[in-house]
Fold:
Amino acid sequence: MIENLLAVSTQVLILFILIGLGFLCAKKVIFTEASIKNLTNFILYFVTPCVVIASFHRDFDAALAKKLITCAIVAVIQHGLNILLAHTLIHDKDKGKQIAMQYAVVFSNCGYMALPLQNAILGSEGVFLGSAYICIFNLLTWTYGLVVMSGDRHAFSGKKLVLNPGVIGVGIGLILFLTPLKLPAVLLSPVNHLAALNTPLPMVIIGFYLAQITSFKFLKDPKIVLSLLLRLVVTPLLGFVLMKLCHLDTAVVTSMVIASCAPCAANTTMFSAKYNRDTKTAVTLVTMSTLFSILTMPLLVSFAMQ
Structure:
């Protein structure tokens, strides 16, 4: 347990050093809100799909394929559990605030924060398995998430569901994994180079948003605190218990716990702003869950590795 805790803590510390660089860049105005948004789009549309494609670029392995399917099922159950707890426990007179908190509990930062840690601890297999969680995350983001945030059932877009970067990356990756087709070196090399950016760039972005925190008054709001506890501790811990009861493979459990115990999804803020929800609450939850995850993630992940 202690060895695992130290190993995970070291990896999280490395990530937070990179986050510190983003924090410094924000304070020195090297990055602005506009440039960070552009960088976020670059990661979303190019870097993240390349990470997934690179992890799938391997010969077909039946055992690995079985683990991938298991991870997809776990991801569906985990999100279902998150939705149930969020709608049961999170309520507020301010509808915009309530929806922002519920969304933050349901969706984790399974791309920006989880993939680098999965890669550091489990290698390419961790990223491969983690991509199943990302795929379910994207499918639910553009269905359940879109309807809840917009308040309009007609907001659902089949086009966005199919053509979002996460699903496209998984689709291309599955073709490479399930068939003899492989990328030629002239294409694989750029994909690997872009995939390598997935650790430093997202951490810099997180650091930028952490620099926006000017007060800890939110700790006086029990509903905000409850949302943070649900996102960082309760929901991933319940998911872990269910996986252990099913006697799942350690790599599967570890990868899924990393994805589920990550901070609030970055798009909590973007969706809140787009659909006129409580953006201040969304920013607070994203930034503070990221900050507190330096304590919670090592404990939960090292526990899962037993």
The chain is about 75% helix and 0% strand. The longest helix spans residues 62-89.
